[in-house]
Amino acid sequence: MISGERFLAIYRITGSEKEAWAKAQDLCLEETVEFPEELVPPGMIREHVFGHIEEFTPYQNNQSYRVVISFAAETAAQELTQLLNVLFGNISLKPGFCLEHLKLPETLLKNFRGPRFGRDGLREWLGVPERPLLFTALKPMGLSAEELADLAYKLALGGIDIIKDDHGLTNQVFAPFAKRAALCAKAVEKANRETGQNCIYVANVTAPATEVLARARLAKEAGARGLMAAPALIGWDTLRQLADDDRLALPIFSHPAFLGSFVTSRENGIGHAALFGQITRLAGADATIYPNFGGRFSFSSAECAQIAQGTAVPMGHLKPIFPCPGGGMSLDRVPAMLESYGAEVIFLIGGGLFKAGPDIVQNCRYFRELAENWVKPQR
Amino acid sequence: MISGERFLAIYRITGSEKEAWAKAQDLCLEETVEFPEELVPPGMIREHVFGHIEEFTPYQNNQSYRVVISFAAETAAQELTQLLNVLFGNISLKPGFCLEHLKLPETLLKNFRGPRFGRDGLREWLGVPERPLLFTALKPMGLSAEELADLAYKLALGGIDIIKDDHGLTNQVFAPFAKRAALCAKAVEKANRETGQNCIYVANVTAPATEVLARARLAKEAGARGLMAAPALIGWDTLRQLADDDRLALPIFSHPAFLGSFVTSRENGIGHAALFGQITRLAGADATIYPNFGGRFSFSSAECAQIAQGTAVPMGHLKPIFPCPGGGMSLDRVPAMLESYGAEVIFLIGGGLFKAGPDIVQNCRYFRELAENWVKPQR
Q1: Above 0.85 for ipTM, yes or no?
Q2: A139 noted as active-site residue
């Protein structure tokens, strides 16, 4: 019944050596049996179901410890929901635990298809083999579906690769989902016919549980060529369901709304690379949106670099995915972002694209030029 | 198109007066239009779609401010997912914002059925009109379905009102869901026939997106008379879907696994009352499980009192629900808990019930006695 295969989770545990060790021991029980150790007789449960401390080493300051815990593959029940529960379920409620990294054996990984497209697949889907990709959002909320479609047309005309609904656009009376998706997809197709380019419209399907798949199907029928959703709002496994649906078979963009509390504290939560990289890949997203350093959010450049690493760190058959730094970005920051991320990135610029000048089509063309010019010297 | 009806969210924003004011202004845009203010022309969007600062008052220390923001009802699109997104979507990614309280007008509340049973309904379901309710969990993970059922029988025999799967029991090979639910429901029914009491078995349906409803139906058919799920793992709106399903029509118990990061920081996240009380009620749970003060978790007694308040604070037609303090509780703490919570509480004792003595049936009887004895002097 027990394969003996175990998966590893690496935590940063805060405290003195003694405190951190006690916390690590507590975690081994809390995340598995949640039961007094002394009441568990010798045998299978104690030997296999308990988490095991595999490594325990101080970080430089000796005020936190890097702790590697192993869990029996069977505890995760081949489910993303239960895997997350073992990794960070009850322990999320206790202070001083940060889940920094996962190492999953093939026994476990085989339960997850992971990203359908990944970086290479998305580049093929877009017909852009090398340069950084350009991404923007339709906004502000309050515009009509016609106004958003008109905007989508201009953004596509200017050479943007990916145009998404703003994550706050769901099914408001201002621009109801079905109408918006139909008009925006059509507007982008029209621009593509004129430019000969291959821009895609990505519909936001963050929605009530009974609506997510229905909206995704409707969007696909209307001509959307990608889907976005916020896993903290719809559930991580609902994101996976979208990604795995063979009738949809569309690239999936993960949005970080409602997810911030996992990373706003240094001592508690889930590390940037694990959350926006590894877990997002396990859930099947092809691209992970997060707030870039230097914008209006507070992620550091080191944290953003960790995310980029997490999008590509080896995870068996799981494809690398695109980091999509965004959030208060402006065009004059593109060169610095190219320095940080290289070409394997999707630049998400929303408001900054509108601020750059009165002609939005021209602004897009300039954005495109920045991305295209950069690649050439690297060849 | 705009009703003029607005809902209120109350935040604690950290910073000096100037910083907190700037953060409040930022929130008004970030959670709605996510667009540069200067680019929005006068008119409907500016007047209605923007969040508005309604009140701004310092907390005692002048290092944080109580800020009341109003949002147009239409921004929430009659969806729980989008309501949460407006309340705490992108702002979750910025430091210094804590969502403390919601005030929703009937325009918005009418979209949510809320708890089907609530406190009164659950008391009727259990046939216990007055005394505190007794709740425990089947564990540890690794036991077989037969062993868990045997345990369920003993716990029911001892007079427990509600027996749930441990939240880590999903569909592991040790005790697969279908078999476990069937055997445990049957074992509890058997005990009820012997005692004449009315104990219920509550199945944990925290599961992959495609499995949640299927397991819930299967559990109901097998005789489970309640369902538990962790909204942070399945999605808040999936919890609502379970609660609203008229074919299920079972009491819903919300579990806090994976939810801790929202409350581990004092400055960021969602306040205890709003998260475990108000939002849990909006999602339709009849009872909210959370770690009690003085146990192995770190919630303070003030935070637990806030949760209890949040379970009953007026919210239009939404029924009050039961607080279920648990987590490292022991029988000798029941009197102190009775002092804190009064009779309108469900005591969740897991491991502590096993630790109290070698005979689990006797331990349950003692637990029941503590609860029954308390009520009489209050009459």
Answers
A1: yes
A2: yes
